[in-house]
Amino acid sequence: MSNSVTVTTSKSWFSRLAESIKSVLVGLILFVAAFPILFWNEGRAVKTARSLEEGAGSVVSVASDQVAAGNEGKLVHVSGPISTDGPVADEDLGVQAEAVKLVRNVSMYQWIEEEKSETRKKLGGGEETVTTYTYKKDWSTSPVDSSSFQEPGGHENPGEFPLPSATFTADPVRLGAFTLSEEQLGQLNEATDLPVDAAAAESLPEGLMEGVPATVDKGAFYMGANPATPAIGDVRISFQVVNPEQASVVGVQTASSFAPYAAKAGDTILLVEEGTHTSAEMFQTAQSANTVMTWILRGGGFLAMVLGLFLVFRPLSVLGDVVPFIGSLLGVGVGLFALIVGFALSSITIAVAWFFVRPLLGIGLLVLAVGGVIWLLKANKKKQAQVAAQGGTVKAA
Questions:
Q1: What range defines the domain where residue 389 resides?
Q2: Do both 208 and 141 map to the same domain?
Q3: Residue 127 maps to a domain
Q4: What are the distances in angstroms from CA 158 to CA 108, 145, 162?
């Protein structure tokens, strides 16, 4: 049994050209989709920022040790201790802990396939791809389907896990005199390891993995012959707990709990953080998260536009691949064109969006974007003139 398999495939120039022509449609979809994504993102960013500013100016900090009826319906900020009525338990395995959440992590020792490809262009426009598949044994938190491997023989995985990973949440969970909902608890995720002992292994239910012994290794249940030399199909089950001593919430006081605040700017606000934080700190954190998300979506829209343009003009580089060197040059040219035009169009789209939501900034950015495009066109025209002049000089000589 080999743990490395190499497969060589070839594509003709005609098949590559046909594929590149088909990719034009995908490119057009990406290119067109980038505009509404970029436009929507700017509106979303401003709406969220204004909603957070509105909330920061309206929030009232209240004590956590009592629920004051006079604050009903108001946007409040509460910081206080977290408590539960009792332990949270994984009843399937008999493990429990004094915590807000108990997390069960299940992994299995399996074959993992890794793929590495190298493509070479051939004279005439064809392409040869050498793909190497390597197989190694490792732990995975999800079943790996070995039937889809390039070389399944000798690399078979067992399939289903004896039981899935799961999260168990205490009910109720209180913040001082207030009760936190499942949605609010979903924002508390800072976990620490919870080791299990040998006694816990003895209380595991029978038949969990028929005929496989269960022991404890490094604070986790181990189902297999020898933890020091794991075999395919061995299972490891570890636990973690989420148990913050303090938490802070910004939301609308609704009875003894919290609800999202509907800002006039159009967004909703419900902030939950572990630890003790002032309302100003929580709103600043939310504003920072909004800025990060804005740039992520800008980057995504820009990449979609660039990739779309590249796919639209990709047939040009494939046509040139009849002579690989020429095709590579055309590919670089198409890539640079896509980057420059994508950047310019993304900037213009963002500027137009800002014109609606931030008029002064939008006008300034639009002027810069249009100026940049004009400069690029002039620079390209000047370069073409220089090339033409050089060509003319050579011809005259």
A1: 12-51+289-396
A2: yes
A3: no
A4: 9, 9, 10
